Amino acid sequence: MAAEHVEHERAEHDDHPAYPVGLRLSGRRVVVIGGGQVAQRRLPALIAAGADIVLVSPSATPSVEAMADAGEITWNKRPYEDGDLAGTWYALVASSDADANNAASAEAERTRTWCVRSDDADAATAWTPATGRSEGVTVAVLTADVQGRDPRHTAAIRDAVVEGLRDGTLVARHHRTRTPGVALVGGGPGDPDLITVRGRRLLAEADVVIADRLGPRDLLDELPPHVEVIDAAKIPYGRYMAQEAINNALIEHAKAGKAVVRLKGGDPFVFGRGMEEAQALAEAGIPCTVVPGISSSISVPGAAGIPVTHRGVAHEFTVVSGHVAPDDERSLVDWPALARLRGTLVVLMGVDKIGAIAQTLIAHGKAAETPVALVQEGTTAAQRRVDATLATVAETARAADVRPPAVIVIGDVVAVGTK
Ligand SMILES: C[S@@+](CC[C@H](N)C(=O)[O-])C[C@H]1O[C@@H](n2cnc3c(N)ncnc32)[C@H](O)[C@@H]1O
């Protein structure tokens, strides 16, 4: 009779949509029945919510066991028993024992405990939405009713929203928490897919973007028309140095209340003058957020099939600037010391001076036959790689008309991918 009553109630409720709510489970008892794959998937979010979790199950997957070992959950290593849900706010019933699931579900109904069931959504009093997070917001997608349940579709909607927010194709401007001031964003080596998720989001929220020649220029085309895009190389500098003029432009736009992104190639702090800009902003009292980027020094060799380290070949790599010749008094690089290193040498901004650099390295003991690769416009459609040795690189680079931007890799790792 009681069972009939429950069936009747359920049929009545079936037509109504589920009511979405966010449970604040911190410090509250949550019971999970069953330690299999479902528990393994659901437990991390319950742990993150701070719930006081009790797992009731004779067995558990190694991952769930690790959560118990780490003290994140309490594991009662036995089958479900009536009374396990006493004092419980929320239950997840997901064991492989149908009788135990039914009994636990009945106890939940009796004790007015919201209960999710992995084996019978229709019999459950709560459903788990497909969830994802993006910048402090939880996106939760729930099927409206049992008839319309299509978990793959809800997951696909969740993915579309979260991905869109992350990559900036779905723009939801922050109002109260919009990042103020200037964001120094490392744009990566050039391929627009190689900017970070945070960088892309900030770009999507910008009013003004001041961009370098290097970096993901393609992303600028995607910005809405109201966004002012300024080419850093074209900022007139009159009585200032070019860098000072850029700093001033950043400060001016930020002071006008604009969300400003300073988009730089690679990482802002690898030969990127990022700290000079951060310091100028700090002096002007403008908040500055730094977003790291993928540096060309590692990614461009990688894109051309060259690992900067390789087991048994190189245990170190050194990144140097080659923008001034080794005998130039402004050079801060200890080239004789570099010639003695066994590892990989990565030279940025070195195309013009590669002849002098190679000569200096050989003069200080580096083998003339050390392999060298020049990778021009790495990660872009125009990427090309030119191989040589220290002895031949100046002539080879000239003959092949290698032009900046190029990363030059010197060392035995150059030959690793080609073997
Ligand atoms: C001023 S430095 C900036 C480096 C940048 N901050 C980084 O982390 O990649 C410019 C030099 O980086 C290298 N570079 C940057 N992007 C490159 C790319 N896509 N292909 C080859 N070299 C690149 C070149 O050596 C170029 O002359």
TL;DR?
The protein is built from 14 helices and 17 strands. The chain has helices spanning 2-13, 37-48, 62-69, 98-111, 151-167, 197-204, 218-221, 242-255, 274-283, 296-303, 335-340, 354-363, 393-399, 413-416; strands at residues 29-33, 52-56, 74-76, 90-93, 114-117, 130-134, 137-141, 182-186, 208-211, 228-231, 260-264, 288-291, 317-321, 344-348, 371-376, 384-389, 406-410. Mean pLDDT is 91; it is low at 1-9.
Describe the structure.
The protein has helices at 2-13, 37-48, 62-69, 98-111, 151-167, 197-204, 218-221, 242-255, 274-283, 296-303, 335-340, 354-363, 393-399, 413-416; strands at residues 29-33, 52-56, 74-76, 90-93, 114-117, 130-134, 137-141, 182-186, 208-211, 228-231, 260-264, 288-291, 317-321, 344-348, 371-376, 384-389, 406-410. Mean pLDDT is 91; it is low at 1-9. The termini are far apart. The protein has a five-stranded parallel sheet with strand order 3-2-1-4-5, sandwiched between helices. It has a five-stranded parallel sheet with strand order 10-9-11-8-12, sandwiched between helices. α8 (242-255) crosses α9 and α12 (354-363) runs antiparallel to α13 (393-399). By secondary structure, it is α/β, with parallel strands linked by helices. It has three domains: 21-128, Rossmann fold (3-Layer(aba) Sandwich); 182-290, Tetrapyrrole methylase, N-terminal domain (Cobalt-precorrin-4 Transmethylase, domain 1, 3-Layer(aba) Sandwich), CATH 3.40.1010; 297-416, Tetrapyrrole methylase, C-terminal domain (Methyltransferase, Cobalt-precorrin-4 Transmethylase, Domain 2). The protein has 14 helices and 17 strands. The longest helix is centred in the middle third of the chain and has 17 residues, at 151-167. α2 links the parallel β1 and β2. Helix content is 32%, strand content 19%. Bound molecules: S-adenosylmethionine. S-adenosylmethionine (SAM) is lined by residues 189-190, 214, 265-267, 270-272, 295-297, 300, 348-349, 375-380, 404-407.
